[in-house]
Design brief:
The complex is a heterodimer of chains A (about 230) and B (about 170). Chain A is an alpha+beta fold and about 230 residues long. Helices cover about 25% and strands about 20% of the residues of chain A. Chain A has eight helices and ten strands. In chain A, β2 and β3 form a beta hairpin. Chain A is globular. Chain B has one domain. In chain B, about 45% of the residues lie in helices and about 0% in strands. Chain B has eight helices and no strands. The chains are: A alpha+beta (about 230), B mainly alpha (about 170). At the A-B interface, α6 of A face α6 of B.
Chain lengths: ~230, ~170
């Protein structure tokens, strides 16, 4: 069984935000009103987290890192879910089952990375946006928690395609939307159990670090950086 | 007097509830709205296979409902001159009018169901989920087989297929 992981090379990332947009469109994320956004209810599975600023005034530039659900190998969110709406799959992906979720938000409170979002309201979406909904992904109902699932629907489709063609699933068959769209190829996605995969090789890179390593959540999304942040 | 008005109120409530329940009951009918489609005539009498009309059943998630072009493959000329329904469909074909099929078997938005996965890869028979559609003659579908998660679960367990929630709900 594969164990999917992702490497994000911060030395390649130019902070363009294409991954954020791709994620939003791919997964039918709700666009919230300005009032909701002001209350911190922006719906994003992937965001550019601001760490610091570089440069001198007036040429100040924010230093950000793309942050998404790090798909912990020992996830704190699944332990507190009373209805098993969030759980870790055999392939390592931490999935969220929306019809099962009761909206208690314990998982959000227990997530040290703050990457889960809650559907507070069902707001009217632009018609153009509704027209281009991805039909493989359910539009979440009001009152459920949602999160990045490594574009699990793409994995299902890739498995199906491979089975229809009577072959095994190749590494290039399945890639999440954020990794696919990155113009500077900062994302590397693949099977961590395969020692020859590109992501496994990057895991042994000297630049590798994970977020909040001291918590022991064993994230499968890790970063590469040689510069000081 | 008080008792009488109480009965009237009760009657109104019951009538309203009955009307609501009657209206919200699933409308079990297939067809194009104007034309009554008979699965029996097509599959039993003329021996047409399911995938002749539901063309995407082995290639896509949705099996697909026939377009007027598909109907025109056979209905460009009259096959049975006595059939009133056939006259209607020939009219549709000659005018190239799109058919408005009534959607009958559906799964909720939060369920990912792929026909290809079940029919092509799993090699399952259509009747396993849809019941015996070949007996459907009139607009009413009497042998409707409800699509329930319990049915999915039973079948997956019997065949040793994964029952991981994330495979169907995403």
């Amino acid at each position: 069984m594969a164990k999917y992981g992702m490497a994000i090379d911060l030395n390649k990332c130019n902070q363009c935000g294409a991954c954020v947009t791709a994620c939003k469109v791919e997964n039918n994320l709700q666009i919230v009103s300005k009032e909701s956004a002001a209350k911190g209810r922006v719906m994003q599975w992937m965001r550019l987290t601001n760490l610091s600023y570089e440069g001198n005034d007036p040429d100040v530039r924010p230093v950000t890192i793309p942050s998404l659900c790090v798909q912990c190998d020992d996830p704190p969110c699944t332990k507190v879910c009373p209805v098993r709406a969030t759980y870790k799959r055999d392939d390592g992906i931490v999935a969220q089952i929306y019809p099962q979720c009761i909206g208690c938000r314990y998982c959000m409170a227990n997530c040290p990375y703050n990457v889960k979002v809650f559907n507070w309201f069902k707001e009217d979406q632009p018609v153009e946006y509704e027209k281009c909904y991805n039909k493989d992904v359910a539009v979440r109902m009001k009152g459920v928690v949602e999160k990045c699932t490594f574009c699990i629907h793409r994995l299902q489709k890739a498995k199906e395609q491979a089975a229809a063609e009577h072959r095994k699933l190749n590494e290039e068959d399945y890639i999440p939307a954020c990794a696919q769209v990155c113009p500077s190829h900062a994302f590397t996605f693949g099977d961590l159990d395969d020692p020859n995969s590109a992501v496994s090789k990057l895991k042994r890179d000297y630049r590798k670090f994970v977020l909040q390593e001291e918590l022991g959540t064993l994230p499968k999304v890790f970063y590469l950086n040689a510069k000081s942040m | 007097m008080k008792r009488k008005s109480g009965f009237i109120i009760l009657f109104i409530i019951c009538a309203a509830a009955g009307f609501y329940l009657f209206n919200s009951a699933p409308k079990q009918s297939t067809g194009t709205g104007g034309v009554t489609f008979s699965h029996y005539v097509h599959t039993k009498q003329h021996n047409i296979k399911c995938k002749t009309c539901h063309q995407n059943v082995e290639t896509e998630e949705r099996a697909g409902i026939p377009t007027i072009e598909t109907c025109s493959l056979c209905h460009s000329e009259i096959i049975n001159p006595n059939s009133a329904e056939e006259k209607k469909i020939t009219e549709y074909v000659t005018n190239n009018k799109p058919l408005l099929w009534l959607n009958y078997y559906t799964v909720p938005d939060y369920v990912y169901f792929s026909h290809r996965r079940h029919v092509k890869i799993g090699k399952l028979d259509c009747a396993l989920c849809h019941g015996d559609m070949t007996e459907q003659k009139s607009k009413e579908l009497n042998n409707y087989k409800p699509i329930l998660m319990a049915t999915c679960f039973d079948c997956h367990k019997q065949r040793n297929i994964t029952t991981d929630c994330g495979n169907c709900h995403h």
